[in-house]
Protein backbone atom coordinates (compact mmCIF):
# COMPACT_ATOMS: atom_id res chain seq x y z
CA UNK A 1 0.00 0.00 0.00
CA UNK A 2 2.12 2.91 -1.22
CA UNK A 3 -0.13 5.59 0.34
CA UNK A 4 0.32 3.94 3.73
CA UNK A 5 4.12 3.88 3.32
CA UNK A 6 4.08 7.57 2.38
CA UNK A 7 1.90 8.29 5.40
CA UNK A 8 4.35 6.57 7.75
CA UNK A 9 7.31 8.43 6.19
CA UNK A 10 5.56 11.77 6.64
CA UNK A 11 4.59 10.91 10.19
CA UNK A 12 8.22 10.26 11.11
CA UNK A 13 9.48 13.46 9.56
CA UNK A 14 6.74 15.71 10.81
CA UNK A 15 7.27 14.45 14.36
CA UNK A 16 10.55 16.37 14.37
CA UNK A 17 8.62 19.62 14.10
CA UNK A 18 6.84 19.10 17.38
CA UNK A 19 10.07 19.73 19.30
CA UNK A 20 8.18 20.81 22.38
CA UNK A 21 4.69 20.72 23.83
CA UNK A 22 5.17 24.45 24.33
CA UNK A 23 4.60 25.25 20.68
CA UNK A 24 1.29 23.36 20.59
CA UNK A 25 1.65 21.51 17.32
CA UNK A 26 -1.61 20.83 15.53
CA UNK A 27 -0.11 17.50 14.61
CA UNK A 28 0.45 14.85 17.27
CA UNK A 29 1.52 11.54 15.75
CA UNK A 30 0.83 8.83 15.08
CA UNK A 31 -2.78 7.52 15.07
CA UNK A 32 -4.43 7.27 11.68
CA UNK A 33 -7.75 8.42 13.14
CA UNK A 34 -6.04 11.53 14.47
CA UNK A 35 -4.28 12.20 11.16
CA UNK A 36 -7.55 12.01 9.28
CA UNK A 37 -9.16 14.23 11.91
CA UNK A 38 -6.47 16.93 11.45
CA UNK A 39 -6.80 16.61 7.71
CA UNK A 40 -10.52 17.33 7.96
CA UNK A 41 -9.90 20.18 10.40
CA UNK A 42 -7.47 21.77 7.98
CA UNK A 43 -9.88 21.41 5.10
CA UNK A 44 -12.69 22.96 7.14
CA UNK A 45 -10.54 25.91 8.21
CA UNK A 46 -9.58 26.72 4.66
CA UNK A 47 -6.29 24.82 4.76
CA UNK A 48 -5.07 23.21 1.59
CA UNK A 49 -6.39 19.83 0.62
CA UNK A 50 -6.57 17.75 -2.52
CA UNK A 51 -5.21 14.32 -3.39
CA UNK A 52 -6.40 10.98 -2.08
CA UNK A 53 -5.18 11.52 1.48
CA UNK A 54 -3.76 14.88 2.58
CA UNK A 55 -2.17 15.09 5.99
CA UNK A 56 -1.94 18.68 7.11
CA UNK A 57 0.30 19.20 10.11
CA UNK A 58 1.94 22.30 11.53
CA UNK A 59 1.88 24.78 14.39
CA UNK A 60 -1.44 25.76 15.94
CA UNK A 61 -2.47 29.02 17.60
CA UNK A 62 -0.20 30.22 20.40
CA UNK A 63 -1.65 29.90 23.90
CA UNK A 64 -1.61 32.42 26.74
CA UNK A 65 1.52 31.00 28.41
CA UNK A 66 3.49 30.97 25.15
CA UNK A 67 5.25 33.81 23.40
CA UNK A 68 3.41 35.34 20.42
CA UNK A 69 4.67 33.96 17.11
CA UNK A 70 6.11 36.01 14.24
CA UNK A 71 6.10 34.06 10.99
CA UNK A 72 8.58 35.35 8.41
CA UNK A 73 8.21 34.26 4.78
CA UNK A 74 11.61 34.48 3.08
CA UNK A 75 15.27 34.54 4.13
CA UNK A 76 16.56 37.41 2.01
CA UNK A 77 17.80 40.86 2.93
CA UNK A 78 14.50 42.03 4.42
CA UNK A 79 13.49 38.84 6.25
CA UNK A 80 16.96 38.23 7.70
CA UNK A 81 17.45 41.81 8.88
CA UNK A 82 14.08 41.59 10.56
CA UNK A 83 14.91 38.27 12.23
CA UNK A 84 18.25 39.63 13.39
CA UNK A 85 16.55 42.56 15.15
CA UNK A 86 13.53 40.83 16.63
CA UNK A 87 13.46 40.48 20.41
CA UNK A 88 13.24 36.73 20.99
CA UNK A 89 12.42 37.28 24.67
CA UNK A 90 9.12 38.69 23.43
CA UNK A 91 8.45 36.60 20.31
CA UNK A 92 9.00 33.14 18.91
CA UNK A 93 10.22 33.35 15.31
CA UNK A 94 9.31 30.90 12.57
CA UNK A 95 10.97 31.37 9.21
CA UNK A 96 9.65 29.63 6.10
CA UNK A 97 11.91 29.74 3.06
CA UNK A 98 13.17 27.54 0.22
CA UNK A 99 16.75 28.23 1.37
CA UNK A 100 18.36 28.07 4.81
CA UNK A 101 20.65 31.03 4.26
CA UNK A 102 20.72 34.64 3.18
CA UNK A 103 22.62 35.53 0.00
CA UNK A 104 24.84 38.61 0.07
CA UNK A 105 23.76 39.50 -3.48
CA UNK A 106 26.14 42.43 -4.20
CA UNK A 107 29.06 39.98 -4.19
CA UNK A 108 27.29 37.09 -5.94
CA UNK A 109 28.71 37.92 -9.40
CA UNK A 110 32.24 37.49 -8.00
CA UNK A 111 31.52 33.87 -7.10
CA UNK A 112 30.67 32.94 -10.72
CA UNK A 113 34.29 33.20 -11.81
CA UNK A 114 36.00 32.09 -8.59
CA UNK A 115 37.03 35.52 -7.24
CA UNK A 116 35.05 34.57 -4.14
CA UNK A 117 33.90 31.19 -2.86
CA UNK A 118 30.19 30.45 -2.64
CA UNK A 119 30.16 30.06 1.14
CA UNK A 120 31.59 33.57 1.51
CA UNK A 121 28.33 35.12 0.28
CA UNK A 122 25.91 32.78 2.07
CA UNK A 123 24.97 33.40 5.69
CA UNK A 124 23.11 30.58 7.52
CA UNK A 125 19.88 31.75 9.17
CA UNK A 126 20.81 30.06 12.44
CA UNK A 127 23.75 32.45 12.71
CA UNK A 128 21.68 35.51 11.90
CA UNK A 129 19.08 34.62 14.54
CA UNK A 130 20.45 31.93 16.91
CA UNK A 131 17.06 31.55 18.66
CA UNK A 132 15.84 29.71 15.55
CA UNK A 133 18.19 26.84 16.38
CA UNK A 134 17.89 26.98 20.16
CA UNK A 135 14.47 28.24 21.33
CA UNK A 136 11.78 25.54 21.64
CA UNK A 137 9.11 27.62 19.87
CA UNK A 138 11.28 29.03 17.07
CA UNK A 139 11.94 27.16 13.84
CA UNK A 140 13.22 27.29 10.31
CA UNK A 141 11.10 25.32 7.84
CA UNK A 142 12.50 24.46 4.42
CA UNK A 143 9.35 25.12 2.42
CA UNK A 144 7.47 27.45 0.10
CA UNK A 145 4.46 29.32 1.37
CA UNK A 146 1.68 29.06 -1.16
CA UNK A 147 -1.35 30.48 0.57
CA UNK A 148 -2.44 32.74 3.41
CA UNK A 149 -5.76 32.54 5.23
CA UNK A 150 -5.76 36.13 6.52
CA UNK A 151 -9.01 35.73 8.43
CA UNK A 152 -7.80 32.77 10.50
CA UNK A 153 -4.16 33.96 10.72
CA UNK A 154 -2.80 30.79 9.06
CA UNK A 155 -0.21 30.29 6.31
CA UNK A 156 -0.13 27.14 4.20
CA UNK A 157 3.24 25.85 3.09
CA UNK A 158 4.65 23.02 1.05
CA UNK A 159 7.83 21.24 2.10
CA UNK A 160 10.73 20.93 -0.36
CA UNK A 161 12.10 17.41 0.02
CA UNK A 162 14.05 17.47 -3.29
CA UNK A 163 16.93 15.06 -3.06
CA UNK A 164 15.53 13.22 0.00
CA UNK A 165 14.82 9.87 -1.65
CA UNK A 166 11.26 9.30 -2.81
CA UNK A 167 9.61 11.69 -0.38
CA UNK A 168 6.77 13.66 -1.93
CA UNK A 169 6.24 17.30 -0.90
CA UNK A 170 3.53 17.72 1.75
CA UNK A 171 1.45 20.60 3.02
CA UNK A 172 1.46 22.01 6.54
CA UNK A 173 -0.09 25.03 8.25
CA UNK A 174 1.34 27.58 10.64
CA UNK A 175 -0.75 29.93 12.73
CA UNK A 176 0.73 33.38 13.19
CA UNK A 177 0.27 36.27 15.57
CA UNK A 178 2.20 38.55 13.20
CA UNK A 179 3.03 37.69 9.61
CA UNK A 180 5.91 39.29 7.73
CA UNK A 181 5.94 38.64 3.99
CA UNK A 182 9.52 39.08 2.75
CA UNK A 183 9.35 36.74 -0.25
CA UNK A 184 11.32 38.91 -2.70
CA UNK A 185 10.67 39.10 -6.43
CA UNK A 186 11.25 37.00 -9.53
CA UNK A 187 13.46 37.56 -12.55
CA UNK A 188 11.55 39.17 -15.42
CA UNK A 189 11.54 37.34 -18.73
CA UNK A 190 8.93 39.54 -20.51
CA UNK A 191 7.34 36.33 -21.78
CA UNK A 192 10.24 35.73 -24.19
CA UNK A 193 10.23 32.13 -25.38
CA UNK A 194 13.08 29.92 -24.19
CA UNK A 195 14.51 32.20 -21.46
CA UNK A 196 13.54 29.96 -18.54
CA UNK A 197 14.70 26.84 -20.37
CA UNK A 198 18.07 27.99 -21.70
CA UNK A 199 19.31 31.07 -19.84
CA UNK A 200 20.75 31.15 -16.32
CA UNK A 201 19.52 33.84 -13.92
CA UNK A 202 21.87 35.33 -11.37
CA UNK A 203 19.88 35.54 -8.14
CA UNK A 204 20.85 32.55 -5.98
CA UNK A 205 24.07 30.74 -5.05
CA UNK A 206 23.00 27.71 -7.12
CA UNK A 207 22.75 30.01 -10.17
CA UNK A 208 26.34 31.18 -9.61
CA UNK A 209 27.41 27.54 -9.24
CA UNK A 210 25.69 26.64 -12.50
CA UNK A 211 27.36 29.56 -14.31
CA UNK A 212 30.81 28.62 -13.00
CA UNK A 213 30.42 24.96 -13.90
CA UNK A 214 29.18 25.79 -17.39
CA UNK A 215 31.92 28.35 -18.04
CA UNK A 216 34.66 25.94 -16.99
CA UNK A 217 33.06 23.05 -18.89
CA UNK A 218 32.95 25.13 -22.07
CA UNK A 219 36.58 26.18 -21.59
CA UNK A 220 37.67 22.57 -21.22
CA UNK A 221 35.52 21.21 -24.05
CA UNK A 222 36.82 23.81 -26.46
CA UNK A 223 40.34 22.50 -25.84
CA UNK A 224 39.46 18.88 -26.72
CA UNK A 225 40.63 17.71 -30.18
CA UNK A 226 37.84 17.46 -32.74
CA UNK A 227 35.92 20.62 -31.85
CA UNK A 228 35.33 22.72 -34.95
CA UNK A 229 36.38 26.37 -35.09
CA UNK A 230 32.76 27.47 -35.23
CA UNK A 231 31.78 25.33 -32.25
CA UNK A 232 34.77 26.58 -30.27
CA UNK A 233 33.67 30.19 -30.88
CA UNK A 234 30.12 29.39 -29.83
CA UNK A 235 31.15 27.52 -26.66
CA UNK A 236 33.33 30.40 -25.58
CA UNK A 237 30.86 33.16 -26.35
CA UNK A 238 29.41 34.40 -23.05
CA UNK A 239 26.30 36.49 -23.56
CA UNK A 240 24.81 38.67 -20.82
CA UNK A 241 21.34 40.11 -21.38
CA UNK A 242 20.52 43.21 -19.33
CA UNK A 243 22.72 46.24 -18.76
CA UNK A 244 21.71 47.05 -15.17
CA UNK A 245 24.24 46.93 -12.30
CA UNK A 246 24.08 43.11 -12.07
CA UNK A 247 24.67 42.55 -15.80
CA UNK A 248 27.48 45.12 -15.90
CA UNK A 249 29.20 43.77 -12.77
CA UNK A 250 29.00 40.21 -14.06
CA UNK A 251 30.43 41.28 -17.45
CA UNK A 252 33.27 43.07 -15.64
CA UNK A 253 34.02 39.98 -13.53
CA UNK A 254 34.02 37.79 -16.64
CA UNK A 255 36.39 40.06 -18.52
CA UNK A 256 38.75 40.17 -15.50
CA UNK A 257 38.66 36.38 -15.42
CA UNK A 258 39.46 36.21 -19.12
CA UNK A 259 42.30 38.73 -18.97
CA UNK A 260 43.93 37.51 -15.77
CA UNK A 261 43.25 33.80 -15.66
CA UNK A 262 42.06 32.36 -18.99
CA UNK A 263 44.96 33.97 -20.89
CA UNK A 264 47.46 32.23 -18.62
CA UNK A 265 45.77 28.93 -17.92
CA UNK A 266 43.75 28.31 -21.08
CA UNK A 267 46.18 29.95 -23.47
CA UNK A 268 45.19 27.60 -26.35
CA UNK A 269 41.70 29.07 -26.48
CA UNK A 270 42.33 32.58 -25.19
CA UNK A 271 41.57 34.20 -28.53
CA UNK A 272 38.19 32.50 -28.82
CA UNK A 273 36.57 33.62 -25.57
CA UNK A 274 34.39 36.73 -25.76
CA UNK A 275 31.77 38.54 -23.71
CA UNK A 276 28.76 40.30 -25.25
CA UNK A 277 26.44 42.49 -23.20
CA UNK A 278 23.03 43.08 -24.78
CA UNK A 279 20.83 45.94 -23.57
CA UNK A 280 17.65 47.32 -25.13
CA UNK A 281 18.18 50.92 -23.92
CA UNK A 282 21.29 52.25 -22.22
CA UNK A 283 23.44 50.51 -19.66
CA UNK A 284 23.29 51.59 -15.99
CA UNK A 285 20.39 53.91 -16.70
CA UNK A 286 19.97 54.80 -13.01
CA UNK A 287 23.51 56.29 -12.85
CA UNK A 288 24.70 59.79 -13.71
CA UNK A 289 25.58 60.32 -17.42
CA UNK A 290 29.31 60.88 -16.75
CA UNK A 291 29.52 57.60 -14.83
CA UNK A 292 27.64 55.72 -17.53
CA UNK A 293 29.99 56.93 -20.25
CA UNK A 294 32.95 55.93 -18.11
CA UNK A 295 31.46 52.46 -17.58
CA UNK A 296 30.97 52.01 -21.34
CA UNK A 297 34.59 53.05 -21.98
CA UNK A 298 35.93 50.67 -19.35
CA UNK A 299 33.86 47.71 -20.53
CA UNK A 300 34.92 48.25 -24.15
CA UNK A 301 38.57 48.51 -23.03
CA UNK A 302 38.17 45.18 -21.22
CA UNK A 303 36.96 43.57 -24.44
CA UNK A 304 33.23 43.45 -23.65
CA UNK A 305 31.21 43.77 -26.84
CA UNK A 306 28.21 46.09 -26.18
CA UNK A 307 25.14 45.50 -28.32
CA UNK A 308 21.97 47.55 -28.29
CA UNK A 309 19.18 45.16 -29.12
CA UNK A 310 15.99 43.45 -28.04
CA UNK A 311 15.97 39.69 -27.59
CA UNK A 312 13.03 38.07 -29.37
CA UNK A 313 13.67 34.36 -28.94
CA UNK A 314 16.06 32.16 -26.97
CA UNK A 315 17.05 28.83 -28.47
CA UNK A 316 19.37 26.17 -27.00
CA UNK A 317 22.49 27.46 -28.79
CA UNK A 318 21.58 30.93 -30.05
CA UNK A 319 19.42 33.93 -29.32
CA UNK A 320 17.54 35.83 -31.98
CA UNK A 321 17.30 39.63 -31.78
CA UNK A 322 14.27 41.58 -32.99
CA UNK A 323 16.22 42.81 -36.06
CA UNK A 324 16.73 39.17 -37.08
CA UNK A 325 20.38 38.86 -35.94
CA UNK A 326 21.38 35.44 -34.61
CA UNK A 327 23.74 35.45 -31.64
CA UNK A 328 25.24 31.99 -30.93
CA UNK A 329 26.22 31.45 -27.29
CA UNK A 330 27.84 28.89 -25.02
CA UNK A 331 26.78 30.62 -21.80
CA UNK A 332 23.74 32.86 -21.49
CA UNK A 333 23.12 34.88 -18.34
CA UNK A 334 19.80 36.71 -18.03
CA UNK A 335 19.58 39.80 -15.84
CA UNK A 336 16.77 42.08 -16.95
CA UNK A 337 15.28 43.15 -13.63
CA UNK A 338 12.64 41.73 -11.33
CA UNK A 339 8.86 41.68 -10.96
CA UNK A 340 6.25 40.19 -8.63
CA UNK A 341 6.43 36.42 -8.07
CA UNK A 342 3.56 34.00 -8.68
CA UNK A 343 3.02 33.80 -4.91
CA UNK A 344 2.60 37.58 -4.66
CA UNK A 345 0.35 37.71 -7.74
CA UNK A 346 -1.95 35.12 -6.15
CA UNK A 347 -2.32 36.91 -2.80
CA UNK A 348 -5.73 38.46 -2.46
CA UNK A 349 -4.65 41.90 -1.16
CA UNK A 350 -4.57 45.35 -2.78
CA UNK A 351 -1.42 45.85 -4.87
CA UNK A 352 0.88 48.83 -5.37
CA UNK A 353 1.66 50.17 -8.86
CA UNK A 354 3.77 47.43 -10.47
CA UNK A 355 1.81 44.61 -8.81
CA UNK A 356 3.69 44.35 -5.52
CA UNK A 357 1.92 43.78 -2.16
CA UNK A 358 0.44 47.16 -1.19
CA UNK A 359 1.70 48.55 2.11
CA UNK A 360 1.16 51.72 4.13
CA UNK A 361 3.78 53.97 5.74
CA UNK A 362 4.19 51.51 8.67
CA UNK A 363 4.84 48.63 6.21
CA UNK A 364 1.47 47.09 7.13
CA UNK A 365 -0.77 45.44 4.58
CA UNK A 366 -3.66 47.67 5.65
CA UNK A 367 -6.49 45.53 4.33
CA UNK A 368 -5.68 42.63 6.72
CA UNK A 369 -4.72 42.68 10.42
CA UNK A 370 -1.25 41.71 11.71
CA UNK A 371 0.30 41.36 8.24
CA UNK A 372 3.35 43.29 7.08
CA UNK A 373 5.34 43.15 3.83
CA UNK A 374 8.95 44.22 3.30
CA UNK A 375 11.58 44.24 0.57
CA UNK A 376 11.18 43.60 -3.16
CA UNK A 377 7.73 41.99 -2.76
CA UNK A 378 6.17 45.17 -1.33
CA UNK A 379 5.41 48.66 -2.57
CA UNK A 380 3.64 51.68 -1.13
CA UNK A 381 -0.05 51.88 -2.02
CA UNK A 382 -0.98 54.85 -4.17
CA UNK A 383 -3.12 56.18 -1.30
CA UNK A 384 0.04 56.79 0.79
CA UNK A 385 1.24 59.34 -1.77
CA UNK A 386 4.68 57.71 -1.73
CA UNK A 387 6.57 56.25 -4.68
CA UNK A 388 7.22 52.51 -4.91
CA UNK A 389 10.82 52.07 -3.73
CA UNK A 390 13.45 50.46 -5.98
CA UNK A 391 14.21 46.74 -5.65
CA UNK A 392 17.41 47.20 -3.67
CA UNK A 393 19.11 45.53 -0.76
CA UNK A 394 19.43 48.86 1.03
CA UNK A 395 15.64 49.33 0.91
CA UNK A 396 14.94 45.74 2.03
CA UNK A 397 17.49 45.88 4.83
CA UNK A 398 16.21 49.14 6.24
CA UNK A 399 12.60 48.01 6.06
CA UNK A 400 13.55 44.82 7.92
CA UNK A 401 15.31 46.85 10.62
CA UNK A 402 12.41 49.30 10.97
CA UNK A 403 9.83 46.52 11.21
CA UNK A 404 11.83 44.59 13.84
CA UNK A 405 11.82 47.75 15.99
CA UNK A 406 8.10 48.29 15.38
CA UNK A 407 7.20 44.70 16.27
CA UNK A 408 9.42 44.81 19.37
CA UNK A 409 7.69 47.99 20.47
CA UNK A 410 4.26 46.41 19.98
CA UNK A 411 5.34 43.22 21.76
CA UNK A 412 6.70 45.11 24.78
CA UNK A 413 3.46 47.10 24.99
CA UNK A 414 1.38 43.90 25.02
CA UNK A 415 0.35 44.05 21.36
CA UNK A 416 2.24 40.98 20.15
CA UNK A 417 -0.77 38.64 19.94
CA UNK A 418 -3.05 38.32 16.94
CA UNK A 419 -5.63 41.13 16.78
CA UNK A 420 -4.24 42.83 19.92
CA UNK A 421 -2.52 45.87 18.39
CA UNK A 422 -5.36 47.29 16.33
CA UNK A 423 -5.59 50.66 18.11
CA UNK A 424 -2.01 51.00 19.31
CA UNK A 425 0.21 53.98 18.60
CA UNK A 426 2.84 52.85 16.06
CA UNK A 427 5.15 55.83 16.45
CA UNK A 428 7.24 57.08 13.53
CA UNK A 429 6.44 55.85 10.05
CA UNK A 430 9.08 54.33 7.74
CA UNK A 431 11.10 56.93 5.83
CA UNK A 432 13.59 55.92 3.14
CA UNK A 433 16.60 58.01 2.24
CA UNK A 434 18.62 56.71 -0.69
CA UNK A 435 22.33 56.55 0.18
CA UNK A 436 23.57 56.16 -3.39
CA UNK A 437 24.59 53.41 -5.76
CA UNK A 438 27.79 51.56 -6.56
CA UNK A 439 28.87 49.17 -9.31
CA UNK A 440 32.17 47.62 -10.36
CA UNK A 441 33.12 47.52 -14.01
CA UNK A 442 36.20 45.27 -13.75
CA UNK A 443 39.94 46.03 -13.91
CA UNK A 444 39.92 47.48 -10.36
CA UNK A 445 37.51 50.22 -11.42
CA UNK A 446 34.08 51.10 -10.03
CA UNK A 447 31.41 53.80 -9.98
CA UNK A 448 30.12 55.45 -6.83
CA UNK A 449 27.09 57.71 -7.13
CA UNK A 450 26.24 59.34 -3.80
CA UNK A 451 23.04 61.17 -4.61
CA UNK A 452 19.47 60.76 -3.41
CA UNK A 453 18.13 60.67 -6.96
CA UNK A 454 19.37 61.04 -10.50
CA UNK A 455 18.45 64.75 -10.58
CA UNK A 456 19.75 65.61 -7.08
CA UNK A 457 23.13 67.16 -6.34
CA UNK A 458 25.84 65.02 -4.80
CA UNK A 459 29.17 63.30 -5.27
CA UNK A 460 29.96 60.90 -8.08
CA UNK A 461 33.30 59.13 -8.27
CA UNK A 462 34.86 56.67 -10.69
CA UNK A 463 38.07 54.69 -11.09
CA UNK A 464 40.36 52.94 -8.65
CA UNK A 465 39.38 55.01 -5.58
CA UNK A 466 35.73 54.12 -6.20
CA UNK A 467 36.69 50.47 -6.56
CA UNK A 468 38.44 50.66 -3.17
CA UNK A 469 35.36 52.33 -1.64
CA UNK A 470 33.15 49.65 -3.24
CA UNK A 471 35.19 46.82 -1.75
CA UNK A 472 35.52 48.42 1.69
CA UNK A 473 31.82 49.30 1.83
CA UNK A 474 30.69 45.78 1.00
CA UNK A 475 33.25 44.15 3.26
CA UNK A 476 31.79 46.08 6.17
CA UNK A 477 28.22 45.24 5.10
CA UNK A 478 28.84 41.47 5.05
CA UNK A 479 26.73 40.21 7.94
CA UNK A 480 29.07 38.09 10.06
CA UNK A 481 32.73 38.26 11.04
CA UNK A 482 33.10 34.71 9.71
CA UNK A 483 32.04 35.73 6.19
CA UNK A 484 33.94 39.02 6.36
CA UNK A 485 37.02 36.95 7.06
CA UNK A 486 36.22 34.53 4.21
CA UNK A 487 35.71 37.41 1.75
CA UNK A 488 38.96 39.14 2.73
CA UNK A 489 40.91 35.87 2.48
CA UNK A 490 39.30 35.01 -0.91
CA UNK A 491 40.25 38.44 -2.31
CA UNK A 492 43.81 38.03 -1.08
CA UNK A 493 44.08 34.47 -2.43
CA UNK A 494 42.78 35.59 -5.83
CA UNK A 495 45.26 38.46 -5.93
CA UNK A 496 48.22 36.23 -5.10
CA UNK A 497 47.31 32.91 -6.77
CA UNK A 498 44.62 33.80 -9.31
CA UNK A 499 41.03 32.56 -9.43
CA UNK A 500 40.04 29.01 -8.66
CA UNK A 501 39.45 27.16 -11.95
CA UNK A 502 38.68 23.69 -10.62
CA UNK A 503 35.37 22.31 -11.84
CA UNK A 504 34.03 20.28 -8.92
C1 LIG B 1 23.27 39.55 -8.36
C2 LIG B 1 22.57 40.65 -7.61
C3 LIG B 1 23.28 41.75 -7.18
C4 LIG B 1 22.65 42.77 -6.47
N1 LIG B 1 23.38 43.84 -6.05
C5 LIG B 1 22.80 44.80 -5.30
C6 LIG B 1 23.57 45.89 -4.82
O1 LIG B 1 24.77 45.99 -5.08
N2 LIG B 1 22.94 46.81 -4.05
C7 LIG B 1 21.61 46.73 -3.73
O2 LIG B 1 21.09 47.60 -3.01
N3 LIG B 1 20.85 45.71 -4.20
C8 LIG B 1 21.41 44.75 -4.97
N4 LIG B 1 20.65 43.71 -5.44
C9 LIG B 1 19.21 43.67 -5.16
C10 LIG B 1 18.95 43.05 -3.79
O3 LIG B 1 19.61 41.82 -3.68
C11 LIG B 1 17.46 42.82 -3.59
O4 LIG B 1 16.82 44.06 -3.69
C12 LIG B 1 17.23 42.22 -2.22
O5 LIG B 1 17.73 40.91 -2.20
C13 LIG B 1 15.76 42.21 -1.86
O6 LIG B 1 15.62 41.62 -0.62
P1 LIG B 1 14.30 40.79 -0.26
O7 LIG B 1 14.48 40.30 1.13
O8 LIG B 1 13.10 41.58 -0.57
O9 LIG B 1 14.29 39.58 -1.30
P2 LIG B 1 15.36 38.43 -1.49
O10 LIG B 1 16.67 38.81 -0.95
O11 LIG B 1 15.25 38.05 -2.93
O12 LIG B 1 14.78 37.25 -0.60
C14 LIG B 1 13.52 36.66 -0.85
C15 LIG B 1 13.42 35.39 -0.01
O13 LIG B 1 12.11 34.87 -0.10
C16 LIG B 1 12.17 33.48 -0.37
N5 LIG B 1 10.89 33.12 -0.99
C17 LIG B 1 10.49 33.31 -2.26
N6 LIG B 1 9.23 32.85 -2.43
C18 LIG B 1 8.84 32.35 -1.22
C19 LIG B 1 7.65 31.73 -0.76
N7 LIG B 1 6.60 31.52 -1.56
N8 LIG B 1 7.60 31.33 0.53
C20 LIG B 1 8.65 31.53 1.36
N9 LIG B 1 9.79 32.12 0.97
C21 LIG B 1 9.88 32.53 -0.31
C22 LIG B 1 13.41 33.35 -1.25
O14 LIG B 1 13.88 32.04 -1.30
C23 LIG B 1 14.35 34.28 -0.50
O15 LIG B 1 14.88 33.62 0.61
C24 LIG B 1 21.26 42.68 -6.18
C25 LIG B 1 20.53 41.57 -6.61
C26 LIG B 1 21.18 40.57 -7.30
C27 LIG B 1 20.37 39.36 -7.74
Automatic annotation (TrEMBL):
GO cellular component: mitochondrial inner membrane; peroxisome
The keyword Flavoprotein is annotated on this UniProt entry: yes
Catalysed reaction, written as an equation: a quinone + NADH + H(+) = a quinol + NAD(+); a ubiquinone + NADH + H(+) = a ubiquinol + NAD(+)
Listed GO MF terms: NADH dehydrogenase (quinone) (non-electrogenic) activity
Pfam families with a match to the protein in the record: NDH2_C (PF22366), Pyr_redox_2 (PF07992)
Function: Alternative NADH-ubiquinone oxidoreductase which catalyzes the oxidation of mitochondrial NADH does not translocate protons across the inner mitochondrial membrane.
Protein name per the record: Internal alternative NAD(P)H-ubiquinone oxidoreductase A1, mitochondrial
Organism of provenance: Lithospermum erythrorhizon (Purple gromwell)
Amino acid sequence: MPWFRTLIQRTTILTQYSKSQKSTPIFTPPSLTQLLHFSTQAAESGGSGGGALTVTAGLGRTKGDEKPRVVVLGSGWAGCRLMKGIDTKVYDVVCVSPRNHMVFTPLLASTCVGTLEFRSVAEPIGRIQPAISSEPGSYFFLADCHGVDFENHVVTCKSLPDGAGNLEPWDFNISYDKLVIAAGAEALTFGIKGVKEHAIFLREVHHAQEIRRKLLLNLMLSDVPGVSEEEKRRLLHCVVVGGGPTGVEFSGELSDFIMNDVRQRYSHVKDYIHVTLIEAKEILSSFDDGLRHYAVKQLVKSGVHLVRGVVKDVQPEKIVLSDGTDVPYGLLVWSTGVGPSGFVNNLDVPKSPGGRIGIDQYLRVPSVPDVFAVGDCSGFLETTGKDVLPALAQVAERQGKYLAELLNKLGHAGGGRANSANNMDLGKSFVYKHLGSMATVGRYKALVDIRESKSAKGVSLKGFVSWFIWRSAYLTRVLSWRNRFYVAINWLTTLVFGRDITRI
